[in-house]
Amino acid sequence: MTLLDVVVLGPDGAARTELEDTIQRLGHSSVGLDPAAVAGLPPTHGDVLMLDLRGEDRSWSDLTTELLDDERPLVIVADRPRRMVQTLAGRPSGTLLLTGSEEDSGFRVALTLCSALCQSARPATRRRSGGFTVPGALRTAAAF
């Protein structure tokens, strides 16, 4: 599996720090970003986006269009059903959903799938290209 750079989107605090620590413990790199503190998503940083929808009832609707258009795989961590999860499930670049009490094994599987999505979507130079497609077998939302 390729080591990934993961951008963790979520409010600053213990929950986001815990996600970042989990990613690093599994051998990947991570950086946290509070979407409310910046305008737009970082367009080139990171191989994978991870969106933390747990906890507070924050509106992420201002990011929905950007997340739908982003070509990086997306991992959503949610503790309850949300409309945004259903909206983002059909992204061409792949969406994975982690629910319940997240454990390393669930994150490991999600990141392995993200690695496969990244490898199938990028040319050998590992540079992002516009308009790529993901094989149908990987273009799915998975619940762990």
Description:
With 144 residues, this protein is an alpha/beta fold. It has a single domain, classed as Response regulator (Rossmann fold, 3-Layer(aba) Sandwich). 29% of the residues lie in helices and 17% in strands. The chain has four helices and five strands; from the N terminus they run βαββαβαβα. It has helices at 14-25, 64-69, 83-88, 104-121; strands at 5-9, 29-33, 48-52, 74-78, 95-99. A five-stranded parallel β-sheet has the order 2-1-3-4-5, with helices on one face. The longest helix has 18 residues, at 104-121. The chain is globular, with a radius of gyration of 14 Å. The protein starts with a strand and ends in a 23-residue tail after the last helix. The model is unreliable at 124-144 (pLDDT under 50).
List the helices and strands and how they pair.
Layout (H helix, E strand, L loop, with lengths): L4 E5 L4 H12 L3 E5 L14 E5 L11 H6 L4 E5 L4 H6 L6 E5 L4 H18 L23
Parallel strand pairs: 1-2, 1-3, 3-4, 4-5
SSE topology string: EHEEHEHEH
Reported for the largest beta sheet, the result is: 5 strands, parallel
**What's the overall geometry?**
globular
**Class per helix and strand makeup:** alpha/beta
- Radius of gyration based on Cα positions: 14 Å
Low-confidence stretches: 124-144
